[in-house]
């Protein structure tokens, strides 16, 4: 969220969003003075809007501004594409603005509404990758109006953004579930401030600290919640870390999801939307295997006779820009300390999408999705990690190699050079909804999830009669490699397999 200074402000964009910000700044009278709008619209240039001049075109007028120390620019063009944003950023930096803020993408702006509290400092994720698809949140979230909605992992990167967007859903209650006290405290506090500033609607926020691994607790808490919809984003997800802690990965992701599904079925949760990953396709890591098994649990639950009135579905996508522990925050820290930027391999590629776009599409899929369906978000074209690193270095006004070195460290256990979005037998087909694909096809082998659960259970949960198996990571990896053909027991995969 925004951190405010009190000084002179230039609002880039004299449309409805920009004018709304200007009115809010003026009415509060504590966040500075709007000196001018900057805009490229010939119909607006030269006019005054509420006594604020509109100057432009932006590229021409920016270099003529007589800036003072502390002057800030706020880009208030929610529908701006990546290329235009990059151009604006370069122009504003060249003009001498030290602080440049931005409104969130159009996927987070409801029917032109904009609030100062939503602005934040511009960062590389705003300028990299493709232009996000515009999603009409108010329309796509109609199915949640008046409902009780639970978000697991609500303090994480995906869970917290889904929670922010759910403020506009008209839900009666929003349950923020997670096992990290601090992260749940932070998102609960942030959402309450957003509500106080007029963002979204007045859902009752209920922060809940709990553990998916505790089946008795999950049964009890869902009985209390009476949730209508669950967005299941919670997971341990750092590949190298989970290779070091494989039992924890399976215990939390696989058995935790199994507990949640069982409780959701028992207490008649109407919609269950599971977030999954490209690393579940031909998984080479324990994390990937755990998510593959979770996909199976969700789709299996949808096929059971007692789920006819319920809808279980999964939404798969690849990397998101800027998530906690992902490559972009790491690169940022490495640049701030002078480098080097560490990359596993010069040819490594990944798909990327912004967190707000991914979450908007997940929420849309949750409403239009069918029971037993697996959906794939259209990720566009993969990006070389080296290219991403070089763009980030240039964002900070530096040059690769000349100012910041790039170092190749090699693939780590569980990593692949290239990820795949679908298995060879899966067929992604377009839906009526932009960038949401439905995955069809028959898998060439079936897995008996009940048997796998029984084999893995004594490794993850203490059984006195099988005490020697408890926390035996070697046994766990052996079981996984026996039943999941692509899993190579922790070896790095350098051919994308």
**Which second-level CATH architecture of the largest domain applies?**
3-Layer(aba) Sandwich
Name of the CATH class of the largest domain: Alpha Beta
Shape: globular
- Total beta strands: 22
Brief overview, please?
The chain is α/β, with parallel strands linked by helices and 497 residues long. It has 15 helices and 22 strands.
Keywords, please?
alpha/beta; Rossmann fold; nine-stranded mixed β-sheet; seven-stranded mixed β-sheet; 15 helices; 35% helix; 19% strand
Explain what you see:
With 497 residues, the protein is α/β, with parallel strands linked by helices. The chain has two domains: 7-122, 3-Layer(aba) Sandwich (Rossmann fold); 137-440, NAD(P)-binding Rossmann-like Domain (Rossmann fold), CATH 3.40.50. Helices cover 35% and strands 19% of the residues. It has 15 helices and 22 strands. The protein has helices spanning 16-28, 58-62, 82-95, 137-140, 157-166, 181-196, 215-225, 239-244, 246-266, 286-303, 327-336, 355-368, 385-395, 449-460, 473-483, and strands at 7-12, 32-38, 48-49, 52-55, 72-75, 99-102, 120-121, 148-152, 173-178, 204-209, 229-232, 271-277, 311-317, 319-321, 341-343, 349-350, 352-354, 374-377, 383-384, 406-408, 427-430, 436-440. Strands 10-9-8-11-12-13-18-22-21 form a nine-stranded mixed β-sheet, sandwiched between helices. Helix 3 links the parallel strand 5 (72-75) and strand 6 (99-102). The radius of gyration is 24 Å and the shape is globular.
């Amino acid at each position: 969220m925004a951190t405010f200074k009190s000084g002179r402000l230039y609002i880039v964009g004299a449309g409805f969003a920009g004018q709304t910000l200007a009115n809010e700044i003026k009415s509060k009278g504590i966040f500075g003075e709007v000196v001018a709008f900057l805009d490229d619209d010939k119909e607006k240039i030269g006019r005054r809007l509420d006594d604020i001049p509109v100057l432009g075109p932006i590229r021409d007028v920016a270099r003529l501004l007589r800036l003072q120390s502390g002057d800030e620019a706020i880009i208030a063009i929610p529908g701006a594409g990546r290329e235009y944003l990059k151009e604006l950023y370069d122009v504003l930096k060249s003009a001498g603005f030290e602080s440049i803020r931005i409104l969130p993408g159009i996927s987070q702006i409801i029917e032109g509404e904009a609030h100062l509290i939503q602005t934040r400092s511009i960062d590389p994720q705003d300028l990299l990758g493709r232009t996000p698809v515009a999603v009409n949140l108010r329309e796509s979230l109609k199915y949640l109006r008046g409902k009780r909605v639970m978000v697991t992992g609500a303090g994480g990167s995906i869970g917290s953004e889904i929670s922010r967007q759910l403020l506009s859903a008209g839900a009666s209650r929003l349950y923020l579930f997670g096992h990290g006290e601090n992260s749940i405290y932070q998102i609960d506090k942030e959402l309450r401030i957003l509500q106080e500033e007029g963002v979204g609607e007045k859902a009752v926020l209920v922060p809940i600290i709990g553990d998916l691994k505790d089946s008795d607790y999950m049964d009890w808490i869902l009985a209390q919640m009476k949730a209508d919809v669950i967005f299941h984003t919670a997971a341990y997800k750092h590949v190298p870390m989970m290779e070091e802690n494989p039992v924890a990965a399976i215990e939390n992701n696989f058995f935790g999801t199994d507990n949640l599904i069982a409780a959701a079925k028992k207490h008649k949760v109407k919609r269950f939307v599971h977030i999954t990953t490209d690393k579940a396709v031909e998984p080479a890591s324990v994390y990937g295997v755990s998510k593959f098994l979770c996909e199976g649990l969700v789709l299996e639950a949808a096929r059971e006779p007692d789920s006819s009135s319920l809808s279980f579905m999964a939404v798969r996508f690849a990397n998101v820009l800027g998530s906690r522990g992902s490559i972009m925050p790491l690169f940022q820290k490495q640049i701030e300390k002078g480098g080097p930027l560490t990359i596993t391999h010069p040819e490594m590629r990944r798909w990327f999408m912004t967190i707000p776009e991914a979450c908007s599409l997940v929420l849309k899929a949750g409403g239009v999705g069918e029971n037993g369906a697996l959906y794939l978000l259209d990720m566009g074209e993969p990006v070389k990690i080296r290219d991403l690193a070089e763009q980030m270095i240039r964002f900070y006004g530096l040059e690769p190699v000349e100012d910041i070195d790039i170092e190749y460290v090699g693939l780590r256990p569980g990593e692949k050079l290239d990820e795949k979005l679908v298995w060879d037998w899966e067929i992604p087909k377009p839906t009526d909804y932009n960038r949401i694909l439905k995955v069809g096809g028959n898998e060439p082998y079936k897995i008996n999830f009940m048997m796998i659960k029984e084999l893995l259970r004594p490794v993850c949960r203490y059984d006195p009669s099988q005490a020697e198996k408890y926390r035996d990571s070697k046994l766990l990896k052996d079981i996984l490699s026996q039943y999941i053909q692509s899993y190579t027991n922790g070896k790095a995969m350098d051919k994308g397999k």
